[in-house]
Amino acid sequence: MTSLMTPQEIDRFFKNLSALNPNPQSELYYTNPFTLLIAVLLSARATDKGVNNATKELFKIADTPQKMLALGVDGLKSYINTIGLYNTKARNVIGLCQRLVTDFEGKIPEKREDLESLPGVGRKTANVVLNAAFHEPVIAVDTHIFRVSNRTGLGLGKTPLEVEKELMKRIPTHWLLHAHHWLVLHGRYICKARKPLCPTCPVRNECHYPYKTKAIE
What we know:
The protein has 217 residues and is an all-alpha fold. It contains 10 helices and no strands. The protein is 58% helix and 0% strand.
């Protein structure tokens, strides 16, 4: 079992990631808080690339809840039918837009409980929006962050919520704002699920993973 990083190692871990990418950004395409929320909702069980391919045209004509409602479920489906679970997602998006117009004056709420009250929006989606749109120092634990956290010893947990609580407790405040994107990108491109790229990893010295991969000679 991976042991926990020390506070000093955690600080160096993020210092190294920050040096390589001082201002990490989401790879999802969006133009405002509303389109961010929709993009994140659509990204469940789908790749960012696949979502971006669909939303690039969608957001040109529907970048507000009112415009999205005007499309309707069937109109929306014609834009997102290349994305997995598009039938359910289309219904959730239209239901979400109706709630935004009815209950929030067409604006994206800035409280987690309000976000989670919207159709199709769970804690992870809410946290992504709070972090990327409203600059809240929160972490949305997806599969990448769950893996990186447990594998490296950054924070251990058996559920995404357990890992989230550990990370929020263990990561120094001055790294929290960008921690979500640093960890997602690290998990996506370096600390991969099947074969992590340990030989070229910028935080290999801080990582406690006992089975680091070796360079091919």
